[in-house]
Amino acid sequence: QVQLVESGGGLVQAGGSLRLSCAASGSIFSINAMGWYRQAPGKQRELVASINNGGSTNYATSVKGRFTISRDNARNTVYLQMDSLKPGDTAVYYCNVLVLELTTVRLTNYWGQGTQVTVSS
To answer: Three-state DSSP class for 54?
Structure first.
């Protein structure tokens, strides 16, 4: 089993910044892709950004140039630096990690518990 612990959400004014963190622990042989998704009230969950184990990144068009995803492989942690935040960024943010598990030698997808980001105008 793998556990994900998210932190860093909160309330910020438009134009402000927040940094989300998601640390994975447990039965981990290696981590492939890591990413952040978000879900606003009444909307479907959407991909915000992802990073693979080679460091290649992918961003939703709505956050390009404002958000930066990064990872620390030694700490099994993924980060999302969010700058120039807008009210439209308000959502619950979830980290997502694709893990090659140590005990089962299987690729398994895990989700964090979610952290609320609220941007006021």
So the answer is: coil
